[in-house]
Amino acid sequence: MSAPARPRSIPVAQTALEHLSGANDDAPLRAFLKTYPLHGAPPGTVLFEQGAPADRFFFISDGLVETTMRTHSGEDTIIDATARGAIIGGLAVLGGAHYPVSAQTVIETHYVGVPADLFLEKLRDDDALFLDTLAQAVHAVERIVAATGRLKLQLLSQRIAGYLLSLCPDRADGPARVHLPFSKRSWAAHLGATPQSLSRSLRQLQKYGVTVRSGAVMIENIKEIRGLFEEEGGI
Question: Which residues are in the Cyclic nucleotide-binding domain (predicted)?
Fold first, then answer.
């Protein structure tokens, strides 16, 4: 893994905290995260490395963070590509363990980093924060279960269509150009696929007016993609 780029503090509004589950801004974990500065990091910034002590966790405000695991042969395998609203490194911190994976920014990313010792000390003294953290952990597990269900129940073409729809302007039809800020390898990992199977599915989507050109996806008609997604039982 290349040498880490230096993160920098930036004056960005912390509105991305709304992505945490909870009814309002007074939710304990959300309020706690607001007490820490939001940092900006360029692509290639290493947040933590596999095997290192879990000394902090990270809330991803926006951007994309790739988690990788080094195999016995020394190769780095992409495990996931984590986007806005996620907490990474949290379970390792709560377990007092080492990071099981490495995490590195793929694109410009904003995040909040919370030291493990301060957070665990606060948890011991704040019952409301403890319960909210537990609720967030349960919510995260539910998201993982739901994502696993999608991998089993949805075709890859459906997952691609759903992802493209999430990036399109909120309109019913018409053409669109979707910029992909990361590599096809990272996109495949984000969808739970291999780069080869992603390429095959993208070729199949050409008959629905979807083409990939120079790091962007061209869509002839959003309505066609939405229809494909719904026909295949989108959830």
Answer: 34-103
Find out whether 51 and 98 touch, Cβ atoms under 8 Å: yes
Total-model pTM: 0.67
Domain residue limits, the chain: 8-152, 154-231
Instruction: Give SS3 for 45.
Output: coil
User: What is the DSSP code string of 115-159?
Assistant: EHHHHHHHHHH-HHHHHHHHHHHHHHHHHHHHHHHHHHHS-HHHH
The Cα 87–Cα 54 span in angstroms is: 13
Q: Is the dihedral of CA 21, 112, 118, 5 positive or negative?
A: positive
Query: CA-CA distance, 30 to 32, in Å (whole number)?
Result: 5
The pLDDT tens digits of the residues spanning 69-88 come to 887 877 777 777 777 788 89
What fold is seen in the domain 8-152?
Jelly Rolls (2.60.120)
